[in-house]
């Protein structure tokens, strides 16, 4: 892969001119084609003829990618307060602080999304008395994969509503971690938490 510096030039196809033109690499603020924002000071090839951006070199892809990821919206839902308490207690039980809560939930979402057998147990958990309560607290999950994983898990578990899905996952975490129905998965989690702490 060739790394370009500011001021280097290369011939490129310019869509604006509709022809091959010499382009000079410059730092420009580049608006994204989907209108979702502007990536600041990214190295691009600028057509010498029409002064439009005509080339995105490979080395600039990570900067654009990072921008797109940062723009991705968090998955949020409102939950009864005791649900957040379960997550806080579970994180504590596993050797982490409340900082681990989003990671713990994302771990479960990802794991269950790829385990349809286990995911099919989720709707039953919603019948628990613990699934009730006024939604007064907010859970926010950010990340590259979370939205996709949630979509996949909804299909696997036959749970349409994001809040219901989160409730059922939290109740599963309650069973696994706080009621310790599954010592082996707890051991795995403890190891993961210890590694990232
Ligand atoms: Zn041009």
Keywords:
alpha+beta, 197 residues, single chain, four-stranded antiparallel beta sheet, two-stranded antiparallel sheet, binds zinc ion, Ubiquitin-like (UB roll)
Describe this structure in words.
- By secondary structure, the chain is α+β, with helices and mostly antiparallel strands.
- It folds into 2 domains: 9-71, Ubiquitin-like (UB roll), CATH 3.10.20; 75-196, no CATH class.
- The chain has 8 helices and 6 strands; from the N terminus they run E-E-E-E-H-E-H-H-H-H-E-H-H-H.
- A 4-stranded antiparallel β-sheet has the order 1-2-3-4, covered by helices on one side.
- Helix 2 (81-93) runs parallel beside helix 7 and helix 3 (101-113) crosses helix 6.
- The longest helix is centred in the last third of the chain and has 17 residues, at 162-178.
- The structure holds zinc ion (ZN).
- Zinc ion binds next to loops.
- Zinc ion is lined by residues 14, 16-17, 21, 47, 49-50, 52, 54.
Q: What structural category characterises the helix and strand content? A: alpha+beta
Mean pLDDT: 90
Outline the biggest β-sheet.
4 strands, antiparallel
List the strand order in the largest sheet: 1-2-3-4
Rg computed from alpha carbons, rounded to a whole number of angstroms: 24 Å
Distance between the termini: 36 Å
Overall number of strands: 6
What does the oligomeric state look like here? single chain
Portion in helices = 40-55%
The hetero compounds bound to this protein are: zinc ion
- Number of helical elements: 8
How much beta, percentage-wise?
15-25%
């Amino acid at each position: 892969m060739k790394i370009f510096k500011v001021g280097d030039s290369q011939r490129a196809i310019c869509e604006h001119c509709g022809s091959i033109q010499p382009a000079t690499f410059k730092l420009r603020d580049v608006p994204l084609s989907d209108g979702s924002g502007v990536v600041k000071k990214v190295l691009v090839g600028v057509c010498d003829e029409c002064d439009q951006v005509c080339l995105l070199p490979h080395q600039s892809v990570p900067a654009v990618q990072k921008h797109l990821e940062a723009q991705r919206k968090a998955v949020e839902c409102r939950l009864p307060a005791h649900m957040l308490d379960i997550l806080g207690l579970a994180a504590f039980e596993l050797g982490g602080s409340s900082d681990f809560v989003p990671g713990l939930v994302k771990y479960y979402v990802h794991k269950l999304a790829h385990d349809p057998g286990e995911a099919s147990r989720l709707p039953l958990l919603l019948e628990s008395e613990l699934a009730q309560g006024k939604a007064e607290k907010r859970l926010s999950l950010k990340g590259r994969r979370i939205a996709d994983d949630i979509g996949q898990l909804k299909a696997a578990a036959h749970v349409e509503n994001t809040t219901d899905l989160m409730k059922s996952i939290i109740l599963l975490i309650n069973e696994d971690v706080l009621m310790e129905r599954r010592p082996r998965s707890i051991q795995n989690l403890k190891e993961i938490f210890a590694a990232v702490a």
